[in-house]
Design brief:
alpha/beta, three-stranded antiparallel β-sheet, Rossmann fold, seven-stranded mixed β-sheet, single chain, 12% strand, 38% helix
Length: 417
């Protein structure tokens, strides 16, 4: 099913604003968004939004916005590797990645790298995406092998592999196969006990025996993509998508499995940018930003809500849409109440708005598929000590995975509530 989220029936990119919070909102969802934004800005002690500035932002999207997959494909003509970062997976972002695969192939881009798959499984990934028949069970297993760490196992990630397989079945015989490239490596679980709590920082030197994930992923991208000049798009977490921007250490979120230099956390994109400069670029999916540690709220609107305000107006631009941040009026927008208050232009070269936060949904999880696989292996791959207990049943693991999805959805709903 195509990704159709826009609810504005007419293309009114260039209409002017009467007032940011005035009448003229054509849906209850938009009105609720504007109410939330008003509450959020008031609680954050922010001045009322400037109408002219919001109009200018809307004009930029109207003049330059593209359908998201086409926007990413267009960036690959300017940069060898485009990193797409997201803070938490959603149903919308998963569907976007599925639809991105054939668009990339049509643009002559034959590689999609994924933080959420293992480089150790690359032979199996290649077999799945080039086989005569799609092996759904094996594809599900490979998604689980990385995702069980965090209880994040969206079914859409299996569909990304299926999309690559379908693309390869239809490609011209002279074209190279479309590859899904695993970027991370498997943790050395044999170095810890099956009851160990892997959310404790002390465990990670024993688990990350091949070095920090950021350096490992950057090395894979550089060796397999940048050095041989193969264009690619990378699906990864926001922290690994940053290139020239180095994010500040977050006391709650960066307790383990991060590379910290001074008070900054380095991601794969930082290492790539240091070596390859603007051959790599960052695009962020629109999502909340982290609030300051120990201070409510946990998540805040990016750009103090101005991005959301653009799309909540009845005369705002259509979405889903991708657009440049660099060189535009979006570049100077900061987030005054976020832990990382850097302007958007420091964070990203481009932005993709799939849906308002209140319309976004947690991804459908693979929880119903867990019973097909080795329960012992599933347990030992999880991080929480309570989930790794040997007496935990399939139902216990299923509950843990479903709880993760519930937390994602609750986090999205809580912004501006």
């Amino acid at each position: 099913m195509p990704l159709v989220i826009a609810r504005h029936p007419n293309n009114h990119w260039h209409n002017s604003y009467r007032s940011v919070l005035s009448a003229g909102v054509d849906s209850d969802a938009d009105l609720e968004t504007l109410r939330r934004l008003q509450r959020f800005r008031k609680r954050s002690h922010l001045n009322p939004a400037d109408n002219g500035r919001v109009s200018d932002l809307s004009q930029h999207v109207g003049d330059h916005g593209q359908e998201p997959a086409e926007y990413i494909a267009s960036l690959t003509a300017l940069h060898d590797v485009v990193l797409i970062g997201e803070g938490m997976p959603t149903a919308q972002s998963g569907q976007f990645l599925v639809e991105l695969v054939p668009v990339l192939a049509a643009a002559g881009v034959w590689n999609l790298g994924a933080e959420w798959l293992l480089q150790d499984d690359q032979d199996s990934l290649d077999e799945i995406t080039t086989g005569r028949n799609f092996d759904e069970v094996r594809a599900t297993e490979l998604v689980l092998r990385w995702g069980m760490r965090y209880g994040i196992v969206p079914s859409s990630r299996v569909e990304v592999l299926r999309a690559a397989w379908a693309t390869n079945r239809q490609r011209d015989h002279l074209a190279p196969p479309f590859r899904i490239l695993g970027l991370d490596y498997d943790l050395d679980y044999d170095n810890v006990t099956d009851r160990a709590d892997l959310t404790e920082p002390e465990a990670w030197p024993h688990l990350r025996t091949r070095g920090p994930s950021a350096r490992f992923m950057a090395a894979v991208i550089d060796e397999q993509l940048l050095k041989p000049r193969r264009r690619a798009v990378i699906s990864c977490s926001t922290g690994h998508a940053f290139t020239h921007h180095r994010r500040p250490y977050h006391a709650n979120n960066d307790r383990f499995d991060v590379e910290v230099v001074g008070d900054r956390v380095l991601g794969a994109g930082n290492h790539l940018f240091a070596q390859r400069a603007d051959r790599v670029a960052t695009v962020l999916l629109h999502q909340p930003l982290d609030g300051c540690p120990g201070v409510r709220p946990d998540h805040v609107y990016a750009a103090d809500g101005l991005v959301d305000m653009v799309f909540a107006r009845h005369d705002g631009p259509k979405f889903p849409v991708g657009f440049d941040v660099g060189g535009s009026s979006f570049a100077t927008l900061g987030t005054s109440c976020a832990h990382d208050d850097s302007p958007l232009g420091h964070l990203a070269d481009g932005w993709i708005f799939l849906a308002p936060l209140q319309q976004m949904r947690a991804p459908e999880q693979l929880s119903s598929q867990l019973e097909q696989f080795d329960l012992t292996q599933l347990r030992r791959r999880m991080l929480q000590g309570s989930s790794r207990r040997p007496d935990n049943s399939v139902q216990d693991l299923r509950s843990a995975v479903d709880t993760t999805a519930a937390v994602i959805e609750m986090s999205l709903r809580a912004v501006g509530a």
